[in-house]
Amino acid sequence: MNKLKYIIGGILLLLAAGCEKDTEPTNFAPKLSTGEASEIYRVGATLSGSVQKSEGILVKECGILYSTIQSMAEYEEVKIAAEEAASFTVSLQNLTPGTTYYYCTYASSGRSIAKGEVKTFTTIANSAPLFNSLVLEAVDEQSITLSTTLKDEGGSEITVRGFCWKLSESDDEKEPTIADNMANVPLEQLVFTSKIKGLEPLKTYLVRAYAVNSIGVGYGETMTVQTKAATIPILAAITEVNSTPLSVTVESSVVSNGEMPIQEKGFCWSTENEEPTTAHIKKVVEGDDETFSLLIDELKPVTTYYIRAYATNALGTGYSETFTYETPLNFPDLDVTTVTEVKPTTAKAASVVISENGSEVTEKGFCLSKTVEEPIIENSKIVVPGTTAAYSVVLTNLESGTTYYIRSYATNSKGTGYGEVAEFTTAVDIGETIVSDITDTDASASAEILTTSDHLAITEKGFCYSSANAVPTVADTKKVSSKQGNDIAANLAGLTANTKYYICAYVVNEKGTYYGAVSEFTTQKGVTIGNTFVSDITQTSATASAEILSDAGREILEKGICYSATNPDPTYADKHVTSVAEGSLIAAAIEGLSSNLKCYVRGYVKNARGYHYGKVTSFVTPSEKAGEPIDLGLSVKWASWNVGASSVEEYGGLYGWGDPTGTATGNGPGVSAGGEISGTEYDIAQAKWVIAGECYESGNGRTAK
Questions:
Q1: Rounded mean pLDDT of the chain?
Q2: How high is the pLDDT of residue 310?
Q3: How many folded domains does the chain comprise?
Q4: pLDDT mean over 258-264
Q5: Cα(38)–Cα(375) distance, integer angstroms
Q6: Are 62 and 29 in contact (CB under 8 A)?
Q7: Same domain for 115 and 138?
Q8: Residue 512 is part of which domain span?
Q9: Among residues 639, 646, 649, which one has the least CA distance to residue 701?
Q10: E-strand spans in 434-483?
């Protein structure tokens, strides 16, 4: 019984041994070969091996075992497909930097495992960055687009990365480095890709990726790429020639016309599209020069502009690579200062903040100086409160007749910007114009220059006046003063009587013409004489009077009454009587008249400018008193006294035949008397006596009563 137990136990042991996994077979194992480790880097390596199977040997899986333990009591495995076992490579990743690893090839039948020779490698502690394969994404006449991925950053932060390239000029050309040309790829960009621009058509270039960390520069594999031949124009990269905060001058050149002549070239730009075309803003540059440039101005502050050169032939339009220009945050821009309402001690200044240039204006105003031609806020400033772009201020306490330099300023976070300098000179301070000795045609004017005249260099001074312009200037009537020093005086002549005038003093120097305050005056009326009144009229005399309404501001040398029996507009040259009445009254007795005489009379005044007359008035002296009619028993009654007498005691007048005036001295009748004069104009009784319808005779002739 015990013997049977031993037999059964032995069988069970054999069965147990046959079921154990991963034991190395002692017979019929495949031939295993462990290759050398390659491409060892900080966190990975490439391992190789081979599994040679004999006929009838079962291999269910194979690959590489690796471990950090030399005995490989514990290990990791990398499996490969059995059909690839003849020769294979595997890539280990996520290894520990600076660590020694042990590895070997293995094969397993599913019940047992065979191992090849154990070899070793050590990962790199730190290294330059490593790359995976380089991929050519696109190529054209002037550019190559590439991409890659980082295999390992090398254990420290990458500071710069991108692609480097150079033109291949021979078969044994060395690989490109960062000492050649570079196109950096921003670190924040997720995809490691770049478009290498500005290349020449139909040229061969060597290109590879690079990255820099604290260890050094790591490079990827080198690729040889040929650009395409050009059909449309090819343009060089844009270069910046000059720039200001709001403008930039760019330059490019035609590398190749393509297969046809160029029809047009220039620049196009956009603030939104990073590859602008001629459909955006464009400016044509005339001329046939290969190199051409353009000033692009009136840009907006703190704005990115994308600019490309272009050239067009019959086959299409070619563009340069995009040039990016970002207008900076800058000082505020201001308009020129305008100065108005300039007076001796005040003036008004105004300006406008054209642009804040990306930063809010915190202060604005004006800089003012008498001595500094480009004043700044450190010299003198006048702060103007408020937030509006346009602003102004009244400057006070200025010195009269003085030149000032002024310009606007505004301050933002970037600094202080200034407008153009304006120059102005305060007005010369001229006192009030005083007008005196006003007549109908003349006046005297005087004024004083209140500003110290030492620095004025006055070339002319005087008065300007007008009856129509309430603010007269030298363009109106002017009278130059010959007075010396600060006095201004002149006599005005040729004025119009009874007219209101506006007058002011003026001063001229090299800075301009300055005016004093405007005064007003009204010329006197011309000599005016009122109506003439006649009283106390007798057959031989009368009293005439009138009033002088205006003497025109001139001295009266003589006044009186002029009269005439024949001139309806009597003058001094006719008969006149001088008046000795005081004041404005004219009064005089006219004597030596005759009865029934019509007389024309008016007042007159004489001054330095001549004779002046009033309106004409006429009067008639009364007829003589007829004698009492006496009936002598004749056919008519006779007068009781002669013509010219007023009583029987008087002799009467002496009248010639047919002369009712009593002035004819000849013996015969008047020339026009004729023969029969009774009842005619030549009848003395008819002329001198008129007694209601009754006719009677006098010693001198017949009359009617």
A1: 86
A2: 97
A3: 7
A4: 91
A5: 75
A6: no
A7: no
A8: 434-522
A9: 639
A10: 434-436, 443-448, 460-466, 477-480
